[in-house]
Design the sequence.
């Protein structure tokens, strides 16, 4: 009998834990005649570090726009009112947040969304109510490519896993592979041994698909010697890393969130003795990631478009520094990449409503389709922000950073090493690097 | 053909993971054995233990292995308070009261931790990181050997306490027959508060070893380990401390074996597959008695 009660309780408890939610935190003060911009971010749960940066960056953008009088709608300046929805880093939390913002707060437009699994879980609601949504954090292409729902109101303002998976694989082929061959005095025909470890979600699988497709499509001399997966939020990677080490890779490509990537590299270098190059996805370019990595990050690579610690010289650097200074002055910390694109997302929403001259959803959607505005703080293709006609995706200029350990601060700092027109130094293999072997 | 060295390495990581589970599940089983209560908030004590260790470490720079004692003492006090204020008033009432009380405690502890420490993930570094020692054919970081040794020492001390001290014998007597213990003059309420405190202290030890091993932690870290701890005590047998030890080790090894042979997504699932199989074959668990 006790067993029966306990087992039932166990099941109930499990279900409650899976579905547990916290209250969303509406932050904005009620304003009449304001444009309501809903921001969906992970303020609690495993992705709260990134989500907090997204929400705070949106506040910086809204404050700047409101300081200039607000959005110009047919000659009348209307302020922005931000309303936040906490997705709690869960699919159920995302659905609750989206429902509250759309049907409760009746926002005019949505910005944000982190984690492709979470974001895709509430796209149905967005499609049903036809709310323009500028997704600034979830990077799986399924966000706008899926065909089971109408995604025509959803616009993707961050590189997709297809884009950066291909970009990073190309970097491996053009830069890392020749460097390893040079170290080994090996011919160019030597196959490069790449291992992949990815989060078992739409995001991680998206990177896996992109890497495989790039190798096949471009006939690259790269062999995937090990492909390991892990569940979202994992913190113990020792066993998959043991499997990777046994495959003798030349480098390891990691598709993980920062709270996974930092312990993964630390465990690989410290516990497994995997002395290789680790390539990271752009969302890891985050101050907490550098802090957690310490000296173990040395030599690692991050594909990036916005870093708390570096920027390509020129106009983009000035704009990024201005944003970073405003953010730090307001919140005392550094913004991250998803924060940067969310900051831009609020500006894009503002520009679209200004161009539409109304908050009518269909008209604003059309304004987003026709958008062609100058880049803001991130480098865009041709210096313009616009959305592709097929899947409504904006096109970013990316770069690759290599981390160097700074013993004074006890953390690594990035240097841009690729492409040639942006790099400040060349890619190097660390002295401790150990290449793979067949 | 899988290399023997890799299998040994995976076994080693399984034993390490098992150590954390053993401490958590043993504490849970001790509480269940004496009080017969279901506390789903037990994982939150692991989380608080982790934060207390990290906070003292950041503030003082003391060796985190030494801080484990302070963390356990702090959790004993917190555990005593929770038992006295929350569980004692509902003891002996419906199991549903215990379940919903403990679920409420999960939210209270998680939100309190988020308010005090923030809800972003954190990590600390062991003073022994980077030091490795040869163990047979393996070259393993010394931290994991310390973690295994600390776990063994704590379990030995618990064994000695339960077997060799008068209070320990009284606690076992209460666990075996609460009414009988009362009849022979044992203060069962004192045993309740003591078992709850010791259970929380063991969770604090698990939390400390979790963070020292370099795993990240945040206020929401306790829920999944708590579910696993419940699965372990059902697998090992309710109220059986040897069952919790064997079950914890089995889980740690099975999880890591599954991650290697089947892929990381099977890591959690395999534990519950084993639980289902054991319950079909032996419904009382590996070391459980039919009376439990």
Sequence:
């Amino acid at each position: 009998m006790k067993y029966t009660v306990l087992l039932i309780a166990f099941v109930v408890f499990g279900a409650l834990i899976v579905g547990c939610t916290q209250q969303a935190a509406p932050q904005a003060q009620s304003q009449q005649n304001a444009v309501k911009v809903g921001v969906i971010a992970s303020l609690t749960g495993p992705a709260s570090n990134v989500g907090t940066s997204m929400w705070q960056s949106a506040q910086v953008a809204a404050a700047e726009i409101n300081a200039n009088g607000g959005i110009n709608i047919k000659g009348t300046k209307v302020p922005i009112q931000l309303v936040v929805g906490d997705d709690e880093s869960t699919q159920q939390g995302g659905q609750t947040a989206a429902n509250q913002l759309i049907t409760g707060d009746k926002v005019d437009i949505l910005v944000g969304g982190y984690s492709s699994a979470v974001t895709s879980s509430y796209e149905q609601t967005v499609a049903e109510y036809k709310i323009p949504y500028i997704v600034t954090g979830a990077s799986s292409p399924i966000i706008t490519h899926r065909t089971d729902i109408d995604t025509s109101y959803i616009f993707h303002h961050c590189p997709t896993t297809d884009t950066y998976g291909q970009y990073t694989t190309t970097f491996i082929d053009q830069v890392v592979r020749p460097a390893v061959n040079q170290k080994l005095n090996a011919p160019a025909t030597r196959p490069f041994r790449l291992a992949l470890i990815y989060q078992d979600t739409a995001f991680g699988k998206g990177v896996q698909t992109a890497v495989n497709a790039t190798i096949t499509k471009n006939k690259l001399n790269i062999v995937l010697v090990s492909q390991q997966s892990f569940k979202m939020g994992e913190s113990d990677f020792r066993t998959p890393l043991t499997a990777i080490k046994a495959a003798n890779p030349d480098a390891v490509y990691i598709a993980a969130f920062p709270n996974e990537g930092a312990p993964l590299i630390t465990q690989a270098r410290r516990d497994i003795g995997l002395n290789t190059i680790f390539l990271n996805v752009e969302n890891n370019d985050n101050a907490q990631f550098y802090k957690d990595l310490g000296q173990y990050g040395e030599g690692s690579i991050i594909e990036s478009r916005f870093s708390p610690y570096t920027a390509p010289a020129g106009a983009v650097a000035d704009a990024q520094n201005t944003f970073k200074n405003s953010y730090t002055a307001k919140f005392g910390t550094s913004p991250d990449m998803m924060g940067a694109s969310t900051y831009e997302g609020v500006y894009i929403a503002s520009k679209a409503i200004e161009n539409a001259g109304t908050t009518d959803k269909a008209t604003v959607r059309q304004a987003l389709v026709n958008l062609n505005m100058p880049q803001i703080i991130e480098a865009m293709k041709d210096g313009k922000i616009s959305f592709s006609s097929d899947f409504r995706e904006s096109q970013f200029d990316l770069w690759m950073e290599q981390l160097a350990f700074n013993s004074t601060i006890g953390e690594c700092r990035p240097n841009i090493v690729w492409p040639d027109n942006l790099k400040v130094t060349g890619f190097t293999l660390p002295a401790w690097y150990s290449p793979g072997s067949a | 053909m899988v290399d023997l060295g890799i299998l040994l390495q995976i076994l080693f990581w399984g034993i390490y993971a098992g150590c954390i589970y053993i401490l958590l599940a043993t504490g849970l089983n001790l509480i269940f054995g004496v009080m017969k209560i279901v506390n789903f908030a037990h994982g939150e004590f692991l989380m608080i233990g982790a934060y207390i260790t990290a906070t003292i470490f950041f503030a003082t720079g003391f060796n985190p292995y030494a801080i484990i004692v302070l963390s356990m003492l702090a959790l004993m006090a917190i555990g005593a308070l929770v038992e006295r204020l929350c569980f004692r008033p509902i003891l002996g009432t419906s199991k549903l009261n215990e379940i919903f009380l403990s679920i409420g405690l999960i939210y209270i502890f998680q939100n309190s931790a988020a308010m005090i420490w923030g809800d972003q993930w954190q990590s600390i570094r062991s003073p022994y990181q980077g030091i490795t020692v040869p163990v047979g054919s393996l070259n393993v970081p010394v931290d994991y050997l310390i973690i295994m040794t600390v776990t063994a020492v704590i379990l030995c001390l618990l064994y000695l306490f339960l077997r060799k001290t008068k209070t320990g014998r009284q606690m076992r007597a209460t666990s075996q027959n609460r009414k009988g213990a009362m009849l022979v003059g044992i203060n069962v309420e004192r045993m309740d508060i003591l078992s709850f405190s010791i259970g929380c202290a063991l969770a604090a030890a698990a939390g400390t070893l979790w963070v020292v091993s370099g795993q990240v932690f945040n206020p929401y870290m306790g829920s999944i380990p708590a579910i696993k701890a419940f699965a372990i005590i059902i697998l090992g047998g309710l109220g059986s401390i040897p069952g919790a030890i064997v079950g914890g080790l089995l889980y740690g090894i099975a999880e890591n074996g599954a991650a290697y042979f089947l892929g990381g997504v099977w890591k959690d699932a395999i534990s519950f597959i084993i639980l289902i199989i054991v319950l079909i074959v032996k419904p009382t668990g590996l070391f459980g008695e039919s009376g439990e």
Notes: Chain A touches chain B through 45 residues (CB under 8 Å).
